[in-house]
Amino acid sequence: MRQSPAMCSTEREDLIQYSPQRIIEARKLPSQAETIFNSGETVETLLSRVPVLAQSPTQRSVSDLDYLSELLAIQQSDGPKKLGFFGTRNMGLTHQKLVEIVSYAYASTDNHIYTSGALGTNAAVIKGALRANAPSKLTVILPQSLKRQPAESQDLLNQVGDLIEMPENDELPLLEASRICNRKIIASVQQVICFAFHDSRLLLETCEEAKDAKKIVTLFYLD
């Protein structure tokens, strides 16, 4: 039996708390984002009209543009960072488009993006960074070797210049290999951005570990 697509990523209400440097936030993503993409606007045009909003310590629903602008404001406040993106592979097309735009914006503004190779969130992050034509700003770390990744991911992953495989984990259960992968990404970044459901245990565990490692953590709930 073939393994599920590898995921490096995690959820829980108690992640809403204050950090000495930043706010660790949990938010609910919008469901009406189709209105943004039905206009035929390019990514560049959309980003040019996204207002910059200050981060809020409260949990709330945000509109599509608020959601984009709050993520963009993260990097605008402190300049380029090393950012780790984690998230579920069970992400709808609309939210994948939003994540792709955010990834594009970060890579275009000299941030270095780290993610893994699963479908859903990871694939959207990779697509956005590749569209920015900044190959040196994207690092993809796989929990196992490239040959263990699903066929649907192979073409996209082969476009990544800095692709790190961990064939030493090929004999491990995928869950354990993913934990190792997540920790490697956490160790490489200053900030973690995660898209998860309330029952995404591995993703929530990853956010907790990042918090314990004194990383800035921003968590978005998809449900």
Q: What's the oligomerization state?
A: single chain
Mean pLDDT: 75
Query: In percent, how much strand structure appears in the residues?
Result: 15-25%
Helix content: 25-40%
Rg over CA atoms, rounded to whole Å, is 16 Å
What layout of secondary structure does this protein have?
Blueprint: E1 17-18, E2 23-28, H1 34-37, H2 43-48, H3 64-78, E3 82-87, H4 93-108, E4 112-115, H5 121-131, E5 138-141, H6 151-157, E6 162-164, H7 174-188, E7 191-196, H8 201-212, E8 216-221
Parallel strand pairs: 2-8, 3-4, 3-7, 4-5, 5-6, 7-8
Antiparallel strand pairs: 1-2
Helix pairs in contact: 3-4, 4-5, 7-8
State the gist of this model.
With 223 residues, the protein is α/β, with parallel strands linked by helices. Helices cover 39% and strands 17% of the residues. It is built from eight helices and eight strands.
Structure, described:
By secondary structure, the chain is α/β, with parallel strands linked by helices. It is built from eight helices and eight strands, in the order E-E-H-H-H-E-H-E-H-E-H-E-H-E-H-E. Helix 3 packs parallel to helix 4 and helix 4 crosses helix 5. The longest helix is centred in the middle third of the chain and has 16 residues. The protein is globular, with a radius of gyration of 16 Å.
